[in-house]
Specification:
Layout: H1 2-6, H2 13-29, E1 46-47, E2 50-57, E3 63-70, E4 72-74, E5 90-92, H3 93-113, E6 122-124, E7 130-132, E8 136-142, H4 152-158, E9 182-183, E10 195-196, H5 212-222, H6 227-232, E11 241-245, H7 251-258, E12 273-277, E13 293-294, E14 298-303, E15 309-315, E16 318-319, H8 340-350, H9 362-367, H10 370-383
Parallel strand pairs: 1-13, 8-11, 9-10, 11-12
Antiparallel strand pairs: 2-3, 2-8, 3-14, 4-5, 6-7, 14-15, 15-16
Bound molecules: zinc ion.
Zinc ion binds at residues 92, 146-147, 211-212.
Amino acid sequence: MADNASQISRISDNYIAEKVSATVHGEYSKLRPSSKPVIKSNSVPEWTVLAGIIAINNETGEFETIAITTGVKATPDADLDRSQGKIIHDCHAEILALRCFNIFLLDTINRISNHDGTSKFVQVTKTNSYEWNKKWDLALYISKLPCGDASMDDLMKVGDTAEFEITDDNPLQYIDPKNKTTIRGRLNYKKRDVIRTKPGRYDSKITLSKSCTDKLCMKQVMGILDSTCSLLMKDPIFLQYIIIPRISGKESILKHAFIDRLRGGNFPVQEFKFISCENHFIDDNHDTTIVREPALVNSIKIFMDNNRVMEQSIINGVKNGFYSKPKKPLRKNCEPIISRYSKWNLLKQIEFNRAELLNVSYLEFKSTLTKRMTLQQEVRSLLSPDGWITTKKDDC
Ligand SMILES: [Zn+2]
């Protein structure tokens, strides 16, 4: 990673951070009102997390926005029964941004494979596979430290920890009492070096999605391609930069959460370069003197490679306006463009003549990516030696 990043000799890390932050904030201001937090009927304003993926040309210094996203919600595991790949499990902004990047790639490859133009980001290889143009580095902007290990110290500073003050011997913090390396949300908040599920109110229905720190940490080994894109791309793709407001002085926390936890693994790690930017995001909750509630709406906006723009807002894991109560069936066309269902169909459309994709389900296909599964298993066992608690099986 360091080699790649150092090729941008003319522009400093500080310039990159400020330019990325200003670009993502600028795009946020152009989102539809229905994609943003609101002031609720009781006059309480909502807050959210903003994320964005920006490509930076390491030869020319150009910046291109690939996606911006907002969101702080995750779907309870119990509500995934009817999903069949259509409900988004994890709507935290940084995770949505990575999903958007994969849809951006699938859409680009679909276009190239139909001889509908070329791409400055993706090239066809001699073996008819695809590869990322290495002139483009990738930066992930996040408006605050990701949930999980990396942000637990901030929680201590805010002082709102009473609810999470439980000790190692309290079984409440575990999802499975036999698994002491996976902790529910922010419980036992002083503990480190554990996998945490997404934070949520303790009285709410449980989500088993892992914290953003845990998911991002793994991307330094696995790269940011999902299963569908891994099939199409020759090599993995890694993020070069993560840019977050006001993280100067937090280097040791980030090192602990992202680097030290991966030590001892028998695999290469492409470390992120964290850079601090100055300005807070306008709809963040950093000002603790203002009471705010987490936004219900999550949103995505993808800037496709041929100037098409896709914007969708997502509530309860489905497209805004398409929600139905958990006992009822899902509505037709409720799936967001970044859903597993949409990605799987797009992959089958691109690879319509690949025999191994015919008559198998998404999860059956995923299990055939054995190299990827083995590596994932190795990283998981390192991060949570007591085992990996998965979300509900969601196949299509
Ligand atoms: Zn998160």
